[in-house]
Amino acid sequence: MKSIKSHFIYFLILYVSLLTIVLGCSKSDSYVAVTQEPDAKMATYQTDKYVWEKMVRSFQVKTEDPINLNWEFWSTTEHAYSNPCDSVSWPLDIVDVSEATPKRVAILDGINNRPGNFITTDFVFLTLNFTAPYYEELRINKPMFEYIQKMELYNQNTVYDMAKTNAISFPSDAMMIKAQWLPVDQLVEQGKNVDAYYQKIISGYNAVDSTVTGKTNMGLVAFHLVTHELPNWVWATFEHSSNIGLCDYIGCKDAFGCTPSYIPSHEEVNKGYTIGKTTPELKALFKEFGVPSVFENYRLKGSQTEYTNTMGDTLLLGNSILEANLVTSSSCISCHARATVNNIKDSNGQRGNLGMFIIDSINNQVDLSSTIQFQRASDTTTLGFHPVTYSGTPIPEDYLTNASDPDATYYQTNFMWQLAQHAKPCQND
Questions:
Q1: Please, are residues 164 and 407 in contact by the beta-carbon 8 Å criterion?
Q2: How confident is the model over 141-166, as pLDDT tens digits?
Q3: CA 247 to CA 253: how far, in whole Å?
Q4: Which residues share a beta bridge with 345?
Q5: Which of 18, 118, 277, 315 is the most buried (most CB within 10 A)?
Q6: Could you give the CA distance from residue 230 to residue 243 in angstroms, rounded to a whole number?
Q7: Is the dihedral angle over the CA atoms 365, 369, 373, 374 positive or is it negative?
Q8: Global pTM?
């Protein structure tokens, strides 16, 4: 009996000790990050956690003086597609962003192959919230870059031939980041706390005469993060928490990095948002991977892996900066499903691409009043026109625009607009 009693007392003490540890942990606000390599399972079932896991790995500080992040050493798309006749090498040093240009209304011309329909105007004509142009860069990681060079996808003829046989398939670790910057001086003019922005010095751009203006200190205002972990890619978009249009129209959703996890949109646009707190789990990831603390001021607006939800409702995702006036109909995956080429060439040998925007009929004037898909704001809270983009499940008939002309058929480029638009024909072909 004495032995049994001794064992009982021993196990009772052990149980109380373990219970104390568990309760102590539950009351603690201190989290220790446990590195979990992001994979397809996480991308499917915990998409928000997945994109943050990918973000912290690519936003680690690479070097000091000046500070550069991992992804800032990736290749620009301008470099990757710089020679349509031959491959280029992975850059050994950081590639300066010296030709970044503001988005213009003229983008509608190129995408829809409708020259003359629009006149290039000031950026304010298209932007939603600001009057100043942004500076955009698109960078791709080494697996994505090497696939492009190995498969000769810098050449438009190769892109078309592979697309026609559905042979384009980037490796699962392919990844790209599209970022937009605003000069710090303009952030100051807007009354923003510039210390709350990630900053770097890049070459500026004069929107009036299209010239490079020298080095300019820029603040990061928004970025997309895209990976090929899943067949239809994983799409995510981030914004600085002080962007006044941050959650407009579609709200902000982040089931991993923000409390609360959902921020509904205001009834009125351009009012700004109280965005909540960075979760302890995300803070622990930042600390583990050496991500600058300034990124606690950025929010995941949402992530996307499907065209629709389980009830068939169209899923939308758009960035108030990168998508400008397109947020009300923007769907990353639906838009990129229309990244295509056909075999009808223009005078420069460039093949046609399927349009991003819904347009019934537009005459050769800037007057868009007869087109219901374009509506000009009736007040001063939003600026410019609001094109309507394709969203939801792809429409098969759109790819077969003319069954009697096989050259008119559009073939998908594995969701990559860069293949459809950056790859050029080689003059030696």
A1: no
A2: 999 999 999 999 999 999 999 999 99
A3: 9
A4: 351
A5: 118
A6: 30
A7: positive
A8: 0.82
